Amino acid sequence: MRSSSLRLIKHLPKMLEAAINDVQFPGNHRPKLLVTCSDVPVSYIEALRRKCEVTVCPGTSRDEILKATPGAEGILWLTADRLNGEVLDLAGPQLKAVSTLTSGMDYVSAEAFRQRKIPLGHTPKVVNDPVADIAIGLMIAAARRFHEGRLKILDSDWDATPQWMLGQDVVGSTVGIVGFGGIGQTIAKRLRGFDIGRLLYTGRNKKPEADQFAAEYVGFGELLRESDFVFIVCPLTSETSKLFDAEAFKMMKSTSVLINVARGGIVDQHALVEALKSGTIFAAGLDVMTPEPMPPSDPIMSLPNCTIFSHRTPSRNCNQEKLRGNVLYCRSECTIRFSWWKTDGTLRIMISFELKPHKSAAHYR
Questions:
Q1: Pairing, β 347-349 against β 340-341
Q2: Distance of alpha carbon 72 from alpha carbon 356, whole angstroms
Q3: Which residues are registered as beta bridge partners of 35?
Q4: What distance in Å separates the CA atoms of residue 60 and residue 83, rounded to the nearest whole number?
Q5: How far from 345 is each of 26, 54, 75, 352, CA to CA, in Å?
Q6: 3-class DSSP state for residue 91?
Q7: Which is nearest to 98 in space by CA: 326, 343, 345, 336?
Q8: Number of alpha helices (DSSP H) and beta strands (DSSP E) in the chain
Q9: Which of 106, 128, 163, 239 maximizes the CB count within 10 A of its CB?
Q10: 122 is catalytic
Q11: Strands of 97-100's sheet, edge to edge?
Q12: What is the C-alpha to C-alpha distance for residues 50 and 323, in angstroms, rounded to an integer?
């Protein structure tokens, strides 16, 4: 993360304490706040308890979370389990706001929030840097055959001839990014130091930010045909589910490398296994897969040309406590957001870094 972010995180406990001390709920009311996972720094929970009645769910199973949900006025949803109408209805009509821990929103029913007019927060920018770092790491590892090389060593299959274990070069290559949002643009920043030859991107619309990277907007098919490296960083939606299927892989170069740091469901995993086995594409680097956690017996786990990393992108110099503080509070748009409503229905208070107005769930559709 940037040095400014690190300085910010260093002072988070005092900042959070100061923000909470400034909050005055109507009539000294202490709202009921549910935190759905106990893996949260104690200092942050203690700070919240000064103004709220905080319940921390002891487990992460859906049954345990649902059991603790009734009566909650605010929810910090810290798992990737389904966040839908069942949860909102079980909480009750007094529920005022929900905030999640993640960037992706594929497990959230935005329509359920829209229908009930409940504010929803998520953390889209917090993971931009760590996810981009993982993506670049997977690009290099897959292209230069790190996993296969280690397997060769374990099998005592070491051949020092000039053509042994040659990989793919990044320098001068054409890189395609599917989804050019915050993470895609952060990957583009990282690529500046690799002397790539051409940068392509595709998505619903052209991005004005692409100009600073000299990135070209192209169709999905053209991106697959032209790219030596393909990064998947788009959201998982009904439109992108299994976007990368057998036909997509056939359009790619036999020397191409696929990197997926978005969601496993965007790729037809069976088709990917076949493409890697047959040499339709050269290699893949994944930190997301289907299902998660991945069974060790899954066919993709046995492929030498597939580098797999568990879906766990945070953190860099930050330890887990600092990261949780970053996710729970230091978001410039909507992180720890506990809302209280006046009798006329207008927003009374929000706890967040810049106290910006909330965005409805429809914003994230």
A1: antiparallel
A2: 23
A3: 56, 76
A4: 13
A5: 13, 24, 19, 20
A6: helix
A7: 336
A8: 13, 14
A9: 128
A10: no
A11: 53-56, 32-35, 74-77, 97-100, 120-121
A12: 22
User: What burial class does residue 190 get, using C-beta atoms within 10 Å of its C-beta: 0-12 exposed, 13-18 middle, 19+ buried?
Assistant: middle
| Count of positions (residues) in the chain | 365
Per-10-residue mean pLDDT of the chain, 365 residues long, equals 39 55 74 89 84 89 93 90 94 92 81 92 82 96 96 92 94 98 96 97 96 98 98 94 98 98 96 98 96 93 95 51 37 34 33 33 31
List of residues 6+ apart from 87 with CB closer than 8 A: 65, 66, 69, 75, 77
Q: Is 72 exposed, middle or buried (0-12, 13-18, 19+ CB in 10 A)?
A: buried
pTM of the model: 0.73
Which residue, 212, 209, 214, is CA-closest to 196?
Answer: 214
DSSP 265: G
Q: In DSSP terms, which residues pair with 241 in a beta bridge? A: none
CB under 8 Å, gap of 24 or more: what pairs does 89-96 form? 90/66, 91/34, 96/31, 96/338, 96/339, 96/340, 96/341
Which among 29, 311, 358, 363 is annotated as catalytic? 311
Closest by CA to 286, choosing from 134, 94, 62, 158, is 134
HSE-up of 81 (CA within 13 Å, CB side)?
Answer: 17
Asked whether 77 and 101 are in contact (CB, 8 A), the reply is yes
CA–CA separation, 315 and 245 (whole Å): 31
